Amino acid sequence: QVQLVESGGGLVQPGGSLRLSCVASGFTFSSYAMSWYRQGPGKQRELVAAVTGGGHTSYADSVKARFTISRDNAKNTVYLQMNNLKPEDTDVYYCGANGLYTYWGQGTQVTVSS
Asked: pLDDT for 34-82, tens place per residue?
């Protein structure tokens, strides 16, 4: 059974940091590109960051230099370190796995507010 379980979301003040984690199971993690998306009410799901099985990363322009995606294939885990958070980063963040199939996590809420 495939599972992607996100954690690490919460409420943070502008300028603060959070680290999201996504633990995967049920598929060959190292063979899949992993990504973080976000989606707010009435908005389309937006790609935030992605990392290939070999570690190549890419980012949305809106988060470059603030967010860092990484993965630990030994732990079947992908991370998203988010620094200098802004109110416009408030969204539900989803972990995605892209390979032979596409899998999604259940999402974790990130709220940036003073």
From this structure: 999 999 888 999 999 999 999 999 999 999 999 999 999 999 999 999 9
Token readout for 32 is: 């899949």
* DSSP secondary structure letter of residue 88: G
CB 91 within 8 A of CB 81: no
d(CA 1, CA 14): 38
Cα-based distances in Å from 88 to 13, 41, 78: 12, 13, 23
Across 3-113, the runs of DSSP E, i.e. the strands, are 3-7, 10-12, 18-25, 33-39, 46-51, 57-59, 67-72, 77-82, 91-98, 102-104, 108-112
